[in-house]
Amino acid sequence: MNGVKDVGARKRVSVAWGRWFTPLMLAVVLAAVAVSTGLGLVPGLFAGPAAPAVPAWQLPPTELSRPDGVAPLGADAPLPVPAELARMLNDTLKPDGAGTFTGVVQDASTGQVLFDRDGDRNRIPASNMKLLTAVAVLRAVGPETRFSTRVLASDAPGTVVLTGGGDVLLGAGEPQPDAVMGRAGLAALARDTVKALADRGVSGTIKVRVDDSLFEGPALNPAWGLGDVDAGETAPLFPLALNAARSTPNATTGPRPKDAAATAAEAFAAQLGAAGATAGLTVAPGVERAKGDPGQVLASAESATVSQHVDLMLETSDNYLAEALGRMAAVKSGLPGSNDGAAAAVRQQLEELGIAAGSMRLADVSGLALENQVSARQFAEVVRAITSGPELRLRAALDGFPVAGLTGTLDRRYGEAGTAGGAGLVRAKTGTLNTVIALSGYVVDADGRLLVFSFIGNGLEPGAAGNRVALDRSASVLAACGCR
């Protein structure tokens, strides 16, 4: 295994602990999260009564994480016996009412399949699709790449053009250099633009236009239900937006702007007016679409890295961000920055990675579409590529996997008696639609073996709470496994 960043781990620990954990559980969580540097592994501690001969990596830490991470797990750690693992998972992986579960568990190091229940059967994966998008954008664009939002001069005198470059996490105010959401702030971009205009001797009234031509085709994917759009699950896609096309950085629900590019341009115009007041500049009301002169860059603002975008996408499962990243992967791959281009880019990158994608049906890249079809085996292979495959750039996705009972979409799970054994240990991407639930991720078992897994339920009873518990119990079985 190879290097894994620990960006913001201690901050996430303190926030989640205040909501959920006792001091004892904090030790559990720190054992799992504080060692997430070094090797892409998440050793930790059982939540519950201590078992005899607890392995060293599952003991509470005596200090916070150190930059040198942890030593490699022993290559001689025993593998779970497939028959014993199947016996345990067949007892937990059961639907609550209608529907079926499929699943695959693999040894991350060797790829050996340890559990297989219809693993090659195509399924609706919900937001597990974002794992495919993560791999695609990390391969096509690169983990350290930043998206640039530029202000260009126009052929029309007195006109500036705010030009989208793929950053949909813009902030309306001052830049937040230590943040992902809002790292590029429109206030600083406006000040830099005023300075550039002043240096050119420009004064008087300035018109602001917006160029969102980087993305092509329908802004809304026809595979999405309009009810989901109205509810704010996603919105029309543009290559620039404030707060992932939400009203504020902290908003996670509710309707989104129908024209995120125009909303961002209006916010920029307001900042430009404020910054230009002392320089003899005023801003004309209204924003229209136009193209700027790419040879005349007045100012620019850089986003957080692609790696940080991917982590935020996986942790919060934001559909808008996922779709924007998919389109950026398409653009970088020489494909149209469209719905179809994003799906084609994901398929292309998976095939180049050696993961068979011919049987997949990709209707979007966020998982909101019911027409998506991907198997549990394909997801397990994707997680294996991230955790222990030969392409080190994929390790950048590891920080984004939600930690059971602690972060992201798993922060309020793994609190029941039957699932607490996985708290702080399981790291997995969730997926939920009306009749669909999924969980794909990785865990180090009690014998020190890194396992990757994917469990997908389809045709389920809407709202049946037992389906989520079935997934969490099954992942917890893997964490506790000394299945010999």
UniProtKB/TrEMBL annotation:
Pfam families: Peptidase_S13
Name of the top EC class for this enzyme: hydrolase
Alphabetic keyword roster: Carboxypeptidase, Hydrolase, Membrane, Protease, Transmembrane, Transmembrane helix
EC numbers on record: 3.4.16.4
Single GO MF annotation: serine-type D-Ala-D-Ala carboxypeptidase activity
Transmembrane segments: 20-46
Example GO biological process: peptidoglycan metabolic process
PANTHER family: D-ALANYL-D-ALANINE CARBOXYPEPTIDASE (PTHR30023), PENICILLIN-SENSITIVE CARBOXYPEPTIDASE A (PTHR30023:SF0)
Family, similarity comment: Belongs to the peptidase S13 family.
Entry protein name: D-alanyl-D-alanine carboxypeptidase/D-alanyl-D-alanine-endopeptidase
UniProt organism field: Arthrobacter cavernae
